[in-house]
Amino acid sequence: MTPSEFEFLKSFLKTKSGLVLSNDKQYLVESRLLPIARSSKLETLSAVIQTLQRGGNRALETEVIEAMTTNESFFFRDKTPFDHFNDTMLPALLDSRATRRQIKIWCAAASTGQEPYSLAICLKEAAAKMGGWRTRILGTDLSQEVLEKAKTGLYSQFEVQRGLPIQMLLKYFEQKGDMWQINSAMRAMVEWKKLNLLESFTHLGEFDIVFCRNVLIYFDQSTKSEILERLAKTLPDDGFLVLGAAETVVGLTDAFKPVSGKRGLFQKKQAVHAATGTTMRPRLAV
């Protein structure tokens, strides 16, 4: 791959998906795109890039974008966000939403579905507190391929061993040969949509909680800021935003502030300010 071809590909990926490739990632590009070159009978990476430059081949564009976006996920990943969900977010929402008795959660960049299903398990485990409540979990991702896997809820032994306690595996999954499938009741708790975070998501409506973990790290500063500002519009003032351990809002937006003592958990600026007075429940300001 020539330097000019690599520069074109960097620009193409940033425009189409927001992914920012550093100059030391050429080896990664070659390893992920060579199989596409072979399967598309284009033979070389140069031929793939020339086809992209000509435009009009949406199928190839999609293949390249999906090959270059990272889709690793596992159940209860990093544990801390799910602790925050159980001990902070859910109690607060059960209190503040007691009249309407509905909670809506969006998992952006949901990948192969482990995060939304982990939240579904949390809600099932809290069922004793939630009689008569309605819940909606939406999982979105740029890749249709990973969404199709997520919809099936079918995982290998290796995948269910990563973060999923054995008692929850036996309680919520059924063995299918050498695979495990989350049961139909759990699958029915989650809906799936293909979505590019660079595009408008106002049509999704408002959510009480947004999980947007381990995706902003792939964007440049201006794209991060723009996405965070738009995420703020999907949340009410007392809604929650959950980011990855290596992600922050600091220096990117004034719309959110950290929830004190809760790593990776953020609320709208108005809600955090209220936490210092008398209008916010004390448990939200640790």
Given the C-alpha coordinates, what overall shape results? Answer: globular
Strand order of the largest sheet: 6-2-1-7-8-10-9
Report the mean per-residue pLDDT as an integer. Answer: 89
Strand content: 15-25%
- Unreliable residue stretches: 273-286
Class of secondary structure makeup: alpha/beta
**What's the gyration radius in Å?**
20 Å
Distance between the termini: 53 Å
Second CATH tier, the architecture of the largest domain: 3-Layer(aba) Sandwich
Largest sheet: 7 strands, mixed
Q: Can you identify the CATH superfamily of the largest domain?
A: Vaccinia Virus protein VP39
Number of strands: 10
Could you please say which CATH topology of the largest domain applies here? Rossmann fold
CATH domain class name of the largest domain? Alpha Beta
Indicate how many domains the architecture comprises: 2
SSE order, as H and E? HHHHHEHEHEHHEEHEEHEEEH
Number of helices: 12
Give the helix level as a range of percent. 40-55%
